[in-house]
Write the structure tokens for this entry.
Amino acid sequence: MSALALAAAAGLALWVAEPARESQAAAEDNQPLQLAEGTGAKRPVVVELYTSQGCSSCPPADELLGELAAQPGVLALSFHVDYWDYIGWKDPFAAAQYTERQRDYAAKLGLRYIYTPQIVVDGRHDVVGSKRRAVARAIEDSAKSAAAVTVTLDESDGGRVLLSAGTAPAGGATVWLVTFDDSHRTDVARGENSGRALTNSNVVRELTALGSWAGEEKSFPLDLAAARAEGRGGCAVIVQQGRGGPIIGAAMIDLDGAEG
């Protein structure tokens, strides 16, 4: 066979193989979520979805986040960003603070831009939010790492978070309080998702820095009664290196007894 014919055959093989791989990847992203047995047994893996009701490519990622919220050992949170609000629909759960958090991740992960839908796993992995298999792999990989600090949420005396002693990262870590709603269904009237009814799970409503952790045993008071009075479905505490760095410990508590 001539060199030209060999090159043509190789090109044909590549052309056939690429669509096959794309087809297989697409099929995997349409399958029900499956995580390896034991994922999150050591500590919860924190999965943050950056999404917007004004983004037409976000609903599949929102659906995936809902599935992750029901997985044991996974702390799934939906952060709604505000940079899609200008195209006709103002996301009622969006906040500039969440956009800024996403920018912090972009800087730490070496990304040139921010986008939706994006999933950040444990502050370590950047994944397109609708790529189900890639998200699962990132969660399974993160679950192999032991927590640097044990986080315990205690409901007695109004609520308190307890941090164990441990080895802190250089520069210490930030202790974040996150409160969220279990689920919201929104009828979108304008924008890219006009006419659609969107369901968002574990919607973050408040993100507050409680303080810092430098390796010592430490505690912070929580006002769980106030969170319940505001209708929040859950509360989480995340310990994170710097701004947008790796997450080194986390815990959550269900405030309303709802499933999922």
